[in-house]
């Protein structure tokens, strides 16, 4: 494996031996500089995390012990060569660090910002065994990727000579983008079809600017365009054109990465009142349509007492957005306890600093409205934790008769998403689970219809950016092999 | 970007556009709609596809000037481009030979009704179209509708054209006169509500094409949700047509009013920018 080769290189051995392991572990973990919490809770677009400096990055990189069997790599869903990129930072070769990241990750600047590191690489860092803070792998990843981007020396990957084979991607989220990049490198003619008017999927319409600036996604998209990837926006595959149209047009492989865009509701009384909406609607209005900008034509409610239902990243993004749009009370209502929240740890911390109220172990059972049908109150069932459920999380149980009613003027329902049903419904022979996800081979991402590969949230249900990206890359590799074999 | 190849005024506020969209022209069916956005900061609004020309690769949209977005669209001229357009969306109308069908449309609902009238006629139905509006000036597409209808009944609130009365009076006259198998209605929500109440009384199966607020139009947000038979449905993917007798029109009316205040502000803002 490549790690070990790199690890044996002279510069790296020397670097490793320069500082004692004990001294490395004694260095304090870097603190990510952030915008002031009060300021940012009224500022819609500025990114909260400001990024670490080169000095901070090199100091933090020293903390990494360059383990012979790095557990962090096992914690990474795509197996990034973490010690190699960190040691390159330590020796001051940031460009090389970025290169190492890009060997595995198509979107390091994105993943460095949005990956749940505490559950992945940082969650198994050797430092934790010694009761120390994990190496700030996410911050370092972000640093290296940002350094490369800001330096203006972004390497546009070399593209193999055109093989004149057309392949299509459906959806331009992280899965579609990663797939496009790899196929372009292999010389394919890549066309990505996107239903919306913007490229980027959830990275654009879901995750807010204050966490992932659009510019960062746009640079990746421009890179792909420079590599010859062609994007067709405003095109719904299954509606504007069908999968069989694509086959007839000579596309030799189709990668479906249409995401999990269907919002779930709870089907409780009053959920259709005015002012109650899905987080998809809320975030789409604010992020994709820029509704809070006075120059935008799209309206958005800017509630003063906003409740967001859920405990994931989407809920956290919604409640923090509501706060930024002027909510005096921005309340996160979650039926389990904080410990079970699936959101990234950093988002929970940031949300609290911004004055978000956490109402855990509460579950809405009804919304009440006024004569105009606008929501004014919500009735909450108070819960307590019972036995662990199938997912290992302690399941919440109702405390009989214990109800609370609170005043709200806007409610954002963020209790999960389902796979977008359009493609699964429109393609004959595709195998679909009862959750609506597309069934594929775990290694090749090929579906029951050979020409169709799939990955990302359409296969996994609501998952993560890094998994979607990894799926895109695996699908590209497998599709390339499949096309070559069947020619 | 989709080019406007022709623009025609039906009245001062009702305008017909033919727009280049070869893929949509090819795949659209009666009942489908498109989402349209004008300008970088424009809103996405749904518009029913009134017609399509496969040879020219165009679709026809009929737009009534109402809020900011429809006004922006109506300000475009032949040769201008629509910034973003996506479709065809929604489920197509289920067309078969039902027998006798009343197509009841109010105001600008006539435009989305046109392709349905044509398709029903082509399937062998006897089509009676009731065209209703406040006054004569607001009756649109009459000639085109006549071409595909066995009979056209015009109703105006003020009696300035056709018979004085509401759309429901026109429908009721037909029901009392002959056996009708189906009613299709498109128009303002309040009108469809009363059509539904009437036809329910006569147990006449009725389809209503709903025009809720939409954001994406692809099933992603739920802004368009309505209650049909006690279940929540998304108009953009499950509709736009539903069994009218199952639709909770009161809830729909309430939800349509949801953004009225903000929309008024947006419109004032837009009008102010026009003056500057
Ligand atoms: C608000 C929010 C916050 C999140 N935060 C995080 C986070 O912090 N960390 C993390 O790892 N993950 C996060 N996630 C999850 C992560 O964004 C997703 O797992 C990931 O984006 C999935 O990628 P994808 O490529 O499968 O799909 P998507 O990003 O959903 O992209 C799918 C694209 O396909 C398009 N499409 C759908 N159907 C069609 C069609 N028929 N034809 C053409 N185009 C179509 C859609 O319009 C969309 O643009 C978050 C999700 C949300 C909603
Ligand atoms: S308009 Fe968004 S789901 Fe229908």
Molecular structure report:
The complex is a heterodimer of chains A (487) and B (276). By secondary structure, chain A is an alpha/beta fold. Chain A folds into three domains: 4-151, Alpha-helical ferredoxin (Fumarate Reductase Iron-sulfur Protein, Chain B, domain 2), CATH 1.10.1060; 166-261 and 419-486, FAD/NAD(P)-binding domain (3-Layer(bba) Sandwich); 263-413, FAD/NAD(P)-binding domain (3-Layer(bba) Sandwich), CATH 3.50.50. Chain A is 38% helix and 17% strand. Chain A has a five-stranded parallel β-sheet. In chain A, helix 8 crosses helix 11. The longest helix of chain A is centred in the last third of the chain and has 21 residues, at 465-485. Chain A is globular, with a radius of gyration of 23 Å. Chain A starts with a helix and ends with a helix. Chain B is α/β, with parallel strands linked by helices. The mean pLDDT of chain B is 91. Chain B is globular, with a radius of gyration of 18 Å. Chain B folds into two domains: 2-89, Translation factors (Elongation Factor Tu (Ef-tu), domain 3, Beta Barrel); 100-256, Rossmann fold, CATH 3.40.50.80. In chain B, helix 3 packs parallel to helix 4 (142-148), helix 5 (167-177) runs parallel beside helix 6 and helix 6 (189-201) packs antiparallel against helix 8. The A-B interface holds A 195-197, 233-236, 239-242, 261-263, 265, 267, 271-275, 277-278, 280-281, 284-285, 289-290, 293-301, 372-374, 420-422 and B 23-24, 27, 37, 39, 41-44, 68-69, 72, 83-89, 215-216, 218-223, 225-227, 232, 237, 251, 254-255, 257-259, 262-263, 266, 269-270.
